[in-house]
Amino acid sequence: MQFYFFFLFFIILLCGRYNIIQGHYFIPKQTGYKISVLFIIFVTAFRFNIGYDWSSYLSYVYPTFNPLNITRLEPLDKLIIGCAGYFNQPLIMFSVYAVITYANIGILISKYSVSKFESLMIYVCLFYLTDLSTIRQAVAVSFVFYGFTYIEQKKLFKYFLICVVAILFHKTAAIALLFYPLYYAKPMVTLLAVAGIYVGMKIVLPKILGSLLPIFMMYLEKGGIKDSSGSFQRLVYLLLFVYAFVFHRKKSSGLVNICAVGVILPFVLGGHTGGRLAQYFLIYYCLLIPDCNRRFNINYRILFMLPFYVYFFMYLIVSVTANHSNEYVPFRWYFLEDLNQNLM
Fold first, then answer.
1. Taking the model in full, what pTM does it have?
2. Quick one: DSSP state of residue 226?
3. In whole numbers, what is the pLDDT of the chain averaged over residues?
4. Residue 267: which pLDDT band, with cuts at 50, 70 and 90?
5. Which residues contact 142 (CB under 8 A, 6 or more apart)?
6. Peptide bond before 181: cis, by omega within 30 degrees of 0?
7. For residue 168, which of 76, 211, 225, 267 is within the disulfide window of CB 3.0 to 4.6 Å?
8. DSSP secondary structure string, 276-328?
9. Which pLDDT score is estimated for 224?
10. Nearest C-alpha neighbor of 236 from the set 308, 136, 293
11. Helix axes 2-11, 116-123, angle to 10 degrees
């Protein structure tokens, strides 16, 4: 657990620029932000057995690589994992995923956020630990997030292409094709769409499947609509949306539209399925929440970040205690461990 205290403290020190002596900062603003993103890439690439699926990814390429084991994966994943397998070096796979994911997120935040520090910390506290487990989806989410560039510039074809790239990493990214029309939709249209999605997926869909395709009800019972996992996480997402809805500026209404759909998905599809799909939408909190905070002074904004740090460590504690998991604690480094040890 101590490593994660250092992890957050180091990013805050570099990127937060809190001055101990009036007017004097530890490091220039832009430099601190770049080092923070590079630090996240380094930690992510060189972690060892951190994240629920880390060992599964390792098994794709080590101790032996069998192309048949990755036939179900998307094309760009096959390319990355295939290269790692060819050279018998898992570190290539983890490093490439880390670089692509956090380069996309870092560049987009740097370009569009009104507060790079707040945006980066919101991402780290809300989504980073989850992304250590959902490696392929994390890179797909990062491309969708980067695609905001083309949504903002009204370049529909380029946004479509970036979605295609995301889909080539994880097919669930197809849901991001909704973002362009959502961003430019009127709030009332979005409200009606959200209500329709909720009614359709919460009430109508189970009845249809129960009558016509009962085999799918088993999935809905175990991991879908009636899944109650991640209840606290859903509440946090909902409270953030209420905050954003109240305090957002008019120019951010498109981001509110996107987040409005995302925040209901865990309620209608369950904590697992809905939560994973919701991340494509809710990563835009990283832009939306700091924009809402612009109306407040610096002291308020510093205090506003404290609950995010608490949430980060609560997620860790719950993962270790309630889920009886050691997938995050203790933190271990790739170059200090034996790959041949039993990870299961």
1. 0.88
2. T
3. 85
4. confident
5. 100, 101, 102, 104, 105
6. no
7. 76
8. HHHHHHHTTHHHHHHHHHTTS-HHHHHHHHHHHHHHHHHHHHHHHTTT---SS
9. 43
10. 308
11. 160
